[in-house]
Design brief:
single chain, 656 residues, alpha+beta, Heat Shock Protein 90, Rossmann fold, five-stranded mixed β-sheet, 21 helices, 28 strands, 38% helix, binds 3-[3-(1H-pyrrolo[2,3-b]pyridin-5-yl)phenyl]propanoic acid
Length: 656
């Protein structure tokens, strides 16, 4: 490029300067999955997490109190924060504005600033330059040192220099980006996904104000845009209260623990409820570590050590006729373990497990000291916890025996299948499906309608047991649940009698829950899902659980008909049959309230035929959200549950 052309075309000059940066960003565009995981809806949302993470880093460094996110009508996003603002001075080595370096050089974001907790090595933390590379358009505005700066990019390439565009009495960074439609398969942002994460972030970063505005939608009965704001002064303490909101608490207040050692920050909140489930949620640098890791190990270790010591010292275990195991200390406990680690190492298949070994001791010491203090200061609550631990040990013993009975039946009788199961003829689990059908009558229809080569039917009678409220041994005594275990052929305990699910001998790779499309049906499918969530989680994690989606309407004219799964489809079906004419005579809509209203053929062609059916795969997309739904629907207290069902009535058929 000659000097002359450069003068006439300052933009060209800009491009030429950027060869080095481009190489990095070119790699991001070539293999986006390597940097943001995927190019589906998850990757799309990842762009937001990336920018917001940078703003949160400013909060962690003590400079940012407010983060506002806007979804614009074209699904572009604006993230505004009141942090320090990206530096705009000259970058000595690269001889250009630091702002441009941060926005166009891979991993340049944190170079200036080593004191805060970056999430490098994790799933986030690839840098805001990745977002830039994957956006058709990105504009950054920085307010800093009394001035206002701006730069615009396309696919990561600067389209303007860094321009000073005015004065400002504020500080902060504003990033607007439009994801590249040639990279992402999905371009529509989901309000609930963003909002859920912002709620979580507000608890994890107390004091921070987070606001989400959706310009695509107006609020009900108002001219304002849909909007939600989060702010928590109590942090994790409020988080556990929120998570356990539908359960009956055993403690007056959650125990809140904070500590710091060797630059590792520890924050833990825990509480006990009258239920039997253990719920530990863990985070490293604000990222959910679904598989736990060294921080969770440290927490568990301290909990066992301190409670055991306290129980022994005060002779509180004397009543127990069985030995206390470490699991017993966690029954009915909900806890959040959050650590901030300068250089986290993530392990495991999904990188959802913290590996830094030094963290175990740090967490264990912080939690141990605080728990010891709590027990000594609160003897009444301590007694309540220990009594529950003793009860848990007794119940565990009973559960072991009950499990053994179920196990013996499955294993020893060698495929002694439940009488109610109509099995399929194939013995190849990979192609086999089992339908868990609500009610004997729908079960009968499904049996007639199915393809018996690969589809098995197991009817379940009415309501199945609410596993959220029942003690474990009751679960194994329940007929319907026993039938599910036996039909699936899974084993539920190891040689030592420990509860371990083994799905190697799973007889069907697709387990389909099929219930009526009404409120009762959705309740039943939630009950069944709760059961899978609590007792057969690997089946969900490995993608074996599905929810059948029967149609809601059948719109017919004469001999022709169309099945419809929602109101929009119904409207367009009516349109098709009225063929532009205003009158819709002779068009009949049948509303299916239950599976029972379909005959075998209809059930097959709408809901069971693999070539035409709609099925929803049940995922543990967000264990926290799922747990909340389950506990809200299944928990002890009625008011939040009723409110939840009412608020979600229109989504009732979708459930989780
Ligand atoms: C580099 C260095 C510093 C801050 C940032 C980047 C920064 C990036 C983003 C992205 C969105 N909001 C942001 N806010 C800040 C440190 C600044 C300093 O040392 O003054």
């Amino acid at each position: 490029m000659s000097e002359e052309i450069n003068k006439e075309n300052p933009k060209g000059n800009y491009d030429a300067d950027n060869i080095q940066a481009l190489e990095g960003l070119e790699a991001v565009r070539k293999r986006p999955g390597m940097y943001i995981g995927s190019t589906d809806t998850k990757g799309l949302h990842h762009l937001v997490w990336e920018v917001v993470d940078n703003s949160i880093d400013e909060h962690l460094a003590g400079y940012c109190t407010h983060i506002d996110v806007i979804i614009h009508t074209n699904n572009s996003i604006t993230v505004t924060d009141n942090g320090r603002g990206i530096p705009t001075g000259m970058h000595q080595k690269l001889q250009k504005s630091a702002l441009e370096v941060v926005m166009t050089v891979l991993h340049a974001g944190g170079k200036f600033d080593k004191d805060t907790y970056k999430v490098s090595g994790g799933l986030h933390g690839v840098g805001v330059s990745c977002v830039n590379a994957l956006s058709n358009y990105l504009r950054v505005e920085v307010h800093r040192e009394g001035k206002k700066f701006e730069q615009i990019y396309a696919k990561g390439i600067p389209q303007t220099p860094v321009n000073e565009i005015g004065t400002s009495d504020k500080r902060g960074t504003i990033v607007t980006f439009l994801p590249d439609d040639t990279i992402f398969e999905e371009l529509v942002y989901d309000f609930d996904t963003l909002s859920k994460r912002f709620r979580e972030l507000s608890y994890l970063n107390k004091g921070l104000y987070l606001t989400l505005i959706d310009e695509r939608e107006k609020q009900e009965d108002s001219d304002e845009f849909k909007k939600t704001s989060y702010h928590s002064e109590g942090g994790l303490k409020e988080f556990v209260q929120y998570l356990d909101g539908a359960r009956t608490p055993l403690l007056e207040n959650p125990i809140h623990i904070e500590g710091k050692e060797d630059n590792v920050e520890v924050e833990v909140a825990l509480t006990y409820n009258t239920g039997y489930q253990e719920n530990i949620f863990s985070f490293v640098n604000n990222i959910n570590t679904r598989e736990g890791g060294t921080h969770v190990a440290g927490f568990r270790r301290a909990l066992t050590r301190i409670f055991k010591q306290y129980g022994d010292d005060n002779n509180l275990f004397a009543k127990a006729k069985v030995t206390i195991s470490s699991d017993d200390f966690r029954e009915g406990m909900t806890a959040i373990v959050s650590v901030k680690v300068p250089e986290p190492q993530f392990k495991g298949q999904t990188k959802g497990e913290l590996g830094n070994s030094e963290v175990t001791g740090i967490v264990s010491r912080a939690v141990g000291d605080a728990l010891k203090y709590f027990l000594e200061e609160n003897p009444n609550q301590a007694k309540r916890i220990i009594e529950k631990v003793v009860l848990a040990a007794t119940a565990r013993h009973a559960a072991e025996k009950a499990r053994e009975m179920v196990q013996r039946k499955t294993v020893l009788t060698g495929g002694g299948l439940p009488g109610k199961l109509s099995d399929c003829s194939s013995r190849n689990p990979a192609e086999c499906e089992v339908y868990l059908v609500e009610g004997d009558s729908a079960g009968g229809t499904a049996k007639q309608g199915r393809d018996r080569n690969f589809q098995a039917i197991l009817p379940l009678r009415g309501k199945i047991l609410n596993v959220e409220k029942a003690m474990e041994h009751k679960i194994y005594e329940n007929e319907e649940i026993k039938n599910i275990f036996t039909a699936l052929g899974v084993s539920i305990q190891d040689k030592d009698g420990e509860r371990v699910l083994n799905i190697d001998k799973l007889r069907y790779h697709k387990v389909v829950i099929m219930c009526d499309a009404d409120v009762d049906g959705s309740h039943i499918s939630t009950l069944i899902m709760t059961f899978f969530f609590r007792y057969m989680k690997p089946l969900i994690e490995n993608g074996h659980i599905f929810i059948a989606a029967p149609p809601l309407y059948r719109v017919a004219k004469g001999k022709e008909f169309i099945y419809c799964w929602n109101e929009t489809e119904r409207q367009s079906a009516i349109e098709v049959y009225s063929k532009g004419k205003e009158d819709a005579t002779g068009i009949k809509t049948q509303r299916y309230k239950g599976l029972g209203e379909m005959n075998a053929e209809q059930l097959w062609e709408t809901t069971m035929d693999p070539t035409t059916r709609l099925m929803r795969k049940v995922t543990i997309e967000d264990a926290i959200g799922a747990d909340l739904v389950f506990s809200m629907l299944m928990g002890d207290e009625v008011p939040p549950r009723r409110q939840f069902i009412e608020e979600n009535a229109k989504y009732a058929k979708i459930d989780v």
